[in-house]
Design goal:
The complex is a heterodimer of chains A (499) and B (385). Chain A has 5 domains: 4-111, Uridine Diphospho-n-acetylenolpyruvylglucosamine Reductase, domain 2, CATH 3.30.43.10; 118-235, Uridine Diphospho-n-acetylenolpyruvylglucosamine Reductase, domain 3 (2-Layer Sandwich), CATH 3.30.465.10; 239-344, Alpha-Beta Plaits (2-Layer Sandwich); 354-443, Alpha-Beta Plaits (2-Layer Sandwich), CATH 3.30.70; 448-491, no CATH class. Mean pLDDT of chain A is 89; it is low at 1-14, 16-21 and 494-499. Chain A is globular, with a radius of gyration of 23 Å. In chain A, β8 (185-191) and β9 (197-201) form a beta hairpin. With 499 residues, chain A is an alpha+beta fold. Helix content of chain A is 36%, strand content 18%. Chain A is built from 18 helices and 18 strands. Chain B is of the alpha/beta class. Chain B folds into 3 domains: 7-93, Fumarate Reductase Iron-sulfur Protein, Chain B, domain 2, CATH 1.10.1060.10; 108-263, no CATH class; 271-384, Rossmann fold, CATH 3.40.50. Chain B has helices at residues 7-11, 24-29, 36-49, 55-62, 70-73, 80-93, 100-106, 112-127, 163-167, 169-181, 198-202, 206-219, 231-238, 240-244, 247-254, 259-264, 286-291, 296-302, 325-328, 330-347, 357-364, 373-384, and strands at residues 156-159, 186-188, 226-228, 256-258, 276-283, 306-311, 351-354, 370-371. In chain B, the strands form 2 sheets. Chain B has a 4-stranded parallel sheet with strand order 2-1-3-4. A 4-stranded parallel sheet of chain B has the order 6-5-7-8, sandwiched between helices. In chain B, α10 (169-181) crosses α22. Classes of the chains: A alpha+beta (499), B alpha/beta (385). The interface between A and B is large, with 47 and 36 residues.
């Protein structure tokens, strides 16, 4: 386990690195040749900051940090890394919550943030070709004038990159109706760990051969680096209705969710927040969220005017039948946008309550929502920890959030232990480890609770087919006992490297 | 080293990254060291773990425009602007930031006669082609002589400040005309309150700012509203309460109003006139939108006086002016401005309205037809007379 507390020492050490010490590295010289001096960073400040993403995990020192702008540059960096036997870690905006982008084994970090061009919009085929560094929400805004959007909308959509969405097969509130990222990726140009450039998938409805595109989406950077992505673009629906329902218990909210789905309604989004998180969110956005409700349900339907009105009425009815104390319809686009802003900034609002949080991401069958939720509160009570729940209720994707202050002695052990129990409770209820945040380094050790040894070995074979040397994002996803040469590559860092 | 940052303030950041897209330097570089999240992390490492203040660390701090666009984007309310000002103050005190020449350049701001003479000299130098391009003045006209502003009464002060009074006194004149048309007697502050201290605070010269703040509080009669037509100055003056931490300073800050903010409540007192036949894009100065958070007022005041108002599509991202930033970091300031120019192009306006002298100079230097909202209102009013 990569301990949060250790971070401090490591970063301090990294910052103290003398640039002269590393300038003579022939690998770095090759990178500078392939890009330009200003896009290869090797100072302590860069390497310290990139030891982290938005998770609580610490990767220790990164190696040089490169900012490529073209496919050729990514390929050149990858080839140089292969030649010099160095690891590669791709990175988007660094908003991942499972430690997927943290550097292990002093890798070269390939930041794709500058590959942020929207290359082509093709409404005939309903696709857009984009660079991996394009920010998710920027694409949607770019499409707004022609009445389209990019459907996957993770809460971090204003920051996160589409390359990162591909790596994590990201979800989002509106993926309930539209499907997660995988359903919106048509084709990809990929730089393989060898440095070769290939095209996965295709614009045809039924591309020939194995669906390697499908294997790549959600591979968390372990199969290569995507450099150009054809995403499906989605036509905006003419009408939207957004409802805010208040409840006296989280169970009532969860039961309403089951009721809505059971009634055959397919809402665009169904989101639940408990009281603690709702209050924090409301402090920030002033969107009109009730501070006194034990839980709120944000429900959205879209489509033709008559249909959405009908669905909105039925959702309100089902809510009331399950004990909703108030049902409010967003009166304007501004009000609706504010409600969503609240939901989507929920994680960031937490510092109002505690300086650190540990967020989980399990998925349980919808019928077990209420039961598992109750367990999460019980587990937290037992460990004397504060827990909050905010989740994509429609697809049973839980986000229990444990609050803590890393400055408290021994608290991290408690947080990890409680987290482990929450994961076990979710798996026992027939759920899975991760809905959308990925496995990263966070949930590796739980993989064997979900998959058999054979499953894991076969997953590793797939990985090795792409990356025989196991040098691309090593030490992630597949647990150590089953991963190929990960461990060797993490240990075989040359001595002269600034570890 | 101890940057003298409050540890609670530092710990408020959970490193979620929601600030990144609202940071102009991150937007143009894609580089974490040039983001609010990255800079806060570096502050933590320096203050809490004694990491060395290397050139790269200083660069990370010096590259910040201090637009504070990250603050409204932060769900946890990290007081980033105050953290950055304190960091710069500590590093300036220890000689690691803000070199002697920059300190010297700040001095005349608080000395009206010296500043007027300097500006006139700059105007002459520019006319004969002696001003280097990298100062970013572009096509901006520097007036060689200025008519004094009249006093029309004692209802409100109009803060005239330093650089703006020597370079853009016409904006003050327009503001004065509009306030007077709305029935307020106006006293221009002139040499009584020579400078708000914003640029000094940005450079970490906080002692100078405190001195200027105290001087201003002594000079301006209590209980009269102080109207400010420069967004940067207004923001700085509204922060005197935080800067000095006294009840008196807080009371003073309480009577500072941006001119659009003040007039938005009195727009019905202005005569109804024919609107100007212009499509006007509103460019919100950062310190109006992100710090004072009163940018909606600009629209309320302008709307009746122009044919059409149009919004830019960049969510109020900084233009790169940032007080002295465009001179100190010309390359980044230029890249940031290019983004803004793209946004302005897409809005296809006849003219861009900006309520801050720095923004209008910076955009004007790139050939954008920029005008203060008060000048538009004054023009519409005078056309009707």
């Amino acid at each position: 386990m990569y301990r949060y507390a250790k971070l401090k020492n490591r970063v301090t050490r990294t910052l103290g690195i003398d640039a002269a010490e590393v300038e003579s590295d022939p690998f770095v010289a090759e990178l500078v040749d392939a890009l330009s001096p200003d896009r290869v960073k090797q100072d302590g400040a860069h390497r310290a900051l990139l030891s982290h993403d938005a998770s609580v995990f610490d990767g220790g020192n990164s190696g040089p940090v490169v900012f490529p702008e073209t496919t050729e540059e990514v390929a050149a960096v990858t080839r140089a890394a292969a030649t010099h036997g160095r690891n590669v870690v791709p990175r988007g905006a660094g908003t991942g919550l499972a430690g997927g982008a943290i550097p292990l084994g002093v890798p070269v970090v390939v930041a794709v943030t500058r590959m942020n061009e929207i290359h082509e919009i093709d409404t005939d085929n309903g696709i857009a070709w984009v660079g991996p560094g394009v920010v998710n929400l920027d694409l949607t805004k770019h499409l707004a004038p022609i009445g389209y959007h990019f459907a996957p909308d993770p809460s971090s959509q204003q920051v996160c990159t589409i390359g990162g969405n591909v790596a994590n097969n990201s979800g989002g509130p509106h993926c309930l109706a539209y499907g997660v990222t995988n359903a919106h990726i048509v084709a990809m140009e990929v730089v393989l760990p060898s440095g070769d450039v290939v095209m996965l998938g295709g614009l045809d409805a039924e591309p020939a051969g194995y669906d390697l595109r499908g294997a790549f989406v959600g591979s968390e950077g372990t199969l290569g680096i995507t450099t150009k992505i054809a995403v499906r673009i989605t036509k905006n629906r003419p009408e939207v209705r957004t409802l805010l329902l208040s409840f006296e218990s989280v169970t009532d909210a969860a039961n309403t969710v089951s009721g809505i789905i059971a009634a055959g309604i397919v809402p665009a989004a169904l989101e639940v927040m408990d009281q603690r998180i709702t209050v924090a969110v409301e402090n920030y956005v002033n969107a009109g969220y009730p501070r006194d409700a034990a839980a709120v349900l944000l429900a959205e339907v879209d489509g033709l005017a008559d249909g959405v009105d009908l669905d909105a009425d039925r959702i309100a009815e089902i809510g009331r039948a399950n004990g909703a104390t108030a049902v409010k319809l967003a009166g304007s686009d501004t009000e609706r946008a504010l409600l969503w802003k609240g939901r989507k900034t929920a994680f960031g609002a937490i510092a109002q309550l505690a300086p650190d949080y540990y967020l989980h991401d399990t998925v349980v069958p919808r019928s077990k929502l209420a039961e598992v939720l109750t367990k999460t509160y019980e587990i937290a009570d037992r460990y004397d920890l504060t827990i909050m729940n905010v989740f994509h209720a429609g697809d049973g994707n839980l986000h229990p959030l444990i609050l803590f202050d890393a400055r408290d002695e021994g608290v991290l052990e408690k947080v990890h232990a409680a987290g482990g129990e929450i994961i076990t409770a979710s798996l026992d209820a027939g759920g899975v480890l991760s809905g959308e945040h990925g496995i990263g380094v966070e949930k590796q050790k739980f993989m064997d609770r979900m998959f058999s040894s054979d499953d894991l070995d076969h997953q590793n074979r797939l990985r090795q087919a792409f990356d025989p040397g196991c040098r691309t994002n090593p030490g992630k996803v597949i647990p150590t006992g089953h991963s190929c040469a990960d461990i060797q590559s993490l240990r075989s860092v040359p001595k002269e490297v600034w570890a | 080293m101890d940057l003298k940052l409050g540890s609670d303030d530092l710990n408020t950041c959970v490193q979620c990254g929601l600030c990144l897209p609202h940071c102009p330097t991150y937007r143009v570089t894609g580089d974490e060291t040039m983001s609010p999240r990255g800079r806060i992390k570096l502050m933590r490492e320096v203050q809490l773990h004694d990491a060395p203040v290397t050139d790269e660390v200083v660069d990370a701090f010096a590259s910040c425009v201090q637009c504070r666009g990250c603050e409204p984007a932060c769900p946890s309310g990290v007081p980033y602007g105050h953290l950055m000002e304190q960091t710069r103050e500590t590093l300036a005190d220890s000689g690691q930031m803000t070199p002697v020449w920059l300190r010297a350049a700040m001095k005349p701001l608080a000395q009206p006669k010296l500043l007027a003479a300097g500006t006139a000299a700059l105007g002459v130098a520019k006319k004969v082609g002696l001003v280097p391009d990298r100062l970013g003045l572009g096509a901006a006209d520097i007036p060689l002589r200025q008519e004094p502003l009249p006093t029309t009464g004692t209802d409100v002060y109009l803060f005239t400040g330093c650089v703006m009074d020597t370079m853009q006194r016409d904006v003050h004149r327009a503001g004065l005309d509009v306030l007077t048309a709305a029935g307020f007697g106006v006293t221009p502050t002139g040499a009584e309150a020579p400078c708000c201290g914003a640029l000094q605070a940005h450079a970490g010269l906080t002692d100078e700012t405190r001195g200027l703040a105290e001087k201003m509080m002594r000079s301006l009669a209590p209980e009269r509203p102080i109207i400010v037509d420069s967004a940067g100055c207004g923001a700085a003056m509204k922060e005197y309460g935080h800067l000095l931490g006294t009840e008196e300073a807080r009371a003073f800050s309480g009577r500072v109003f941006d001119i659009q903010e003040f007039l938005a409540d009195h727009v019905d007192k202005l005569p109804e006139v024919a609107p100007l036949d212009l499509r006007v894009a509103v460019q919100d100065p950062c310190h109006l939108r992100h710090v004072q958070r009163v940018h909606e007022a600009t629209r309320v005041v302008l709307q009746p006086f122009v044919r059409e108002l149009v919004e830019l599509d960049d969510d109020g991202l900084c233009c790169g002016a940032g007080g002295a930033y465009s001179v100190l970091q010309p390359e980044l300031a230029g890249q940031i401005r290019d983004r803004k120019l793209g946004s302005i192009d897409r809005a296809t306006p006849d003219v861009v309205a900006s309520a801050n002298p720095g923004c209008s100079l910076h955009l004007g230097a790139a050939g954008v037809d920029t005008i203060h909202p008060m000048e538009l209102v004054a023009r519409a009013l005078s056309a009707a007379m």
